[in-house]
Amino acid sequence: MTLFSFLGAIEIGLIFALVALGVFISFRLLRFPDLTVDGSFPLGAAVCAVLITHGYSPFVATIGATLAGAVAGLITGWLNVKLKIMDLLASILMMIALYSINLRIMGGPNIPLINDPTLFNQLQPAGMEDYVFRPLLMCAIVVLAKLAMDWFFLTERGLAIRATGTNARMARAQGVNTGGMILLGMAVSNALVGLAGALFAQTQGGADSSMGIGTIVIGLAAVIVGESILPSRRLILATLAVVIGAIVYRFFIALALNVDFIGLKAQDLNLVTALLVTIALVIPQLKRRFAKKH
């Protein structure tokens, strides 16, 4: 694997670390099976690309994409809390709706950002190659997002969200508005996914309506791989594990697709993903069996 491919894998891994953090909030903290991310990821990309092509600053476009993702998550939560639609079905309905909404926002299947300003080319210092700077900037963004998330979920409201996911009945008995906490948690989760979509569009040179397909699988894979590498009940270590899992996942994907003797091609991406997730799920079981024997 070349240095260019290695840094590219790190860059994409860091982008999907934001997705994995969002998935961690919904699946692990809220216990809410959320498929909205397959729609909110391209939603963030679409909103960001449209705003940039209409002359808005990439900073404003990225914030707008993050807010759009939050709104998508909020609507999914609203369908579940207010209309009493089952959580999984509510997220599927929102995911389906977002496909059409994204096409409407973009006015077509895709929007290129070839010669338009992005966060990366505006912040890139002179004399530094873009393939070196982009992973560094993404690392800074992910670290800030992780620290902000760690802080938020240690506040009173963040603890209320965690309590809602752990035991909603007990949380209600303690005076927690569990419906409001689900809405807030889903908004934060999909805001991170929308942010990831915006950054992905800016690194890949455009937004596409189909770029969200399989996003939930990638997010779950990163969470599972990370928990296998660094199992912990502490929130700070759990979020760190998710970030590490996303980077490791993308690194092994890139390694598998770039090593010639394996013979894998781009169309084998889903196969490699399934194998990695299977391995990550089996490893903890093997560890437990080994521990029992000794």
TrEMBL record:
UniProt key word Membrane: yes
Keywords: Cell membrane, Membrane, Transmembrane, Transmembrane helix
Source organism phylogeny: Bacteria, Pseudomonadati, Pseudomonadota, Betaproteobacteria, Burkholderiales
Principal subcellular localisation of the protein: membrane
The species this protein was found in: Comamonas sediminis
Topology of the protein relative to the lipid bilayer: Multi-pass membrane protein
Name used for this protein in its record: ABC transporter permease
Subcellular location as annotated: Cell membrane
One Pfam family in the UniProt entry: BPD_transp_2
Residue ranges of the TM segments: 6-27, 63-81, 88-111, 131-154, 175-199, 211-230, 235-257, 269-286
InterPro entries for this protein: ABC_transp_permease
